[in-house]
Amino acid sequence: ITGSxxxxxxxxxxxxxxxxxxxxxxxxxxxGITKIELGGIPSSATVTFTAEPGITVxxxxxxxxxxxTIEATNPNAGQLANDAAIRKPLESFxxxxxxxxxxxxxxSVAVTKNDNxxxxxxxxxxxxxxxxxxxxxxxxxxxxxxxxxxxxxxxDVDLTDGDGSETYDWAEITVPAGVTLVVPSTFPNGI
Length: 191
What we know:
By secondary structure, the protein is mostly beta strands. Helices cover 7% and strands 39% of the residues. 19% of the residues are buried.
């Protein structure tokens, strides 16, 4: 089991198609994949996949981590048919990391094969690198007063990403011609 994937923070990646599972040893129909487990996925991540007839995909969440089990429901379909059917939903797995998170995700992959009634499980990991992306700040404010007098102007700036990984770097205030902006001696929030 090999592969890797990368995604930009708050975007999605088709990680299932990046999981490379070795080919079957036997091509006579006696061997096939009967189950694949994808684990280590944060429960706050968004995961989607495309269903396939004869295959169940079961998510189980424990302690904030979700494991998805992809399994054949028709043992009479034949090993090769089940193998091909299981690979289809796997290839469609898509993940969006938890909102505003740039924490990398290591997806554990366990593949169970059946060869004439003898099963064996191979384990691997698919690392998903999550690249940070700066979120724009939210800005709001208002002001009012009389002409030719100083008027208070309230400007509120908040970071969208509240996990502490982003900070203010600079701000620019543009005023119309003829307006004088009086700046306070200290700024809020460390500006």
